[in-house]
Amino acid sequence: MNLVRQIPNLLGVFRVIATPVLAYMILLQTGWALIGAAILLFVMAMSDIVDGNLARRLGVVSPLGIYLDTISDKIFVAGALLPLVQIDLIPSWYALTIIAREFAVSGLRSYAAAQGVVIPARAWGKQKLTLTVTGLIWLMVWAALPMIDGSPTWFVWLSQWWMVPYGLALIWTIASGVEYFWNARDLLKQAVVNSAVE
After folding, report:
1. What is the pLDDT of residues 87-100, one digit of tens each?
2. DSSP secondary structure string, 121-164?
3. How far is CA 22 from the centre of its chain?
4. How many CB atoms lie within 10 A of CB 41?
5. Considering the entire predicted model, what is its pTM?
6. Segment 81-133, tens digit of pLDDT
7. What is the spatial distance between Cα 157 and Cα 70, in angstroms, rounded to a whole number?
8. What domains does the chain contain, in order, with CATH numbers?
């Protein structure tokens, strides 16, 4: 029973531990390794969606669980982005934009928490993660198919549309970051006033 109650936390640990495996599979640059990486990234993303709901259902929401849920998605997304940059599937500026946004928003939320203000996750932010993961999975499948004999023609054609979620992920990344800082503008203005007084 205690093990069941630890499942949400274990899912968070799983995402962190699986990240190096994800990166290694991408760096292999073979068709089936990229397909395997795409599947692993999908499983990691699904576990990220499930663990929070499961924790609330089991009544085991904890500071550790919140911490793992907060950092694990950032870790596994970076774990996919960086090796994809290394093998020239995505430009470095794209990865930097997504990772920098995560640092900026995490810093903002940490500062707000220190001031006793809770900035909750917003719809744009959750959609951003979904679009980012979808775009990366789609991209890896597109890159893998030419290396796999016998890929269905329609599937190869469909894979060429990876740039749609890929592009939307970038738009959502920027827009959701702007939304966080816009909604925290009063808090940030007060911080500027306080620093000027000091």
Report:
1. 999 999 999 999 99
2. --HHHHHHHHHHHHHHHHHHHHHHGGGSTT--HHHHHHHGGGHH
3. 13
4. 24
5. 0.88
6. 999 999 999 999 999 999 999 999 988 988 888 888 877 777 777 788 899 99
7. 36
8. 2-197 (1.20.120.1760)
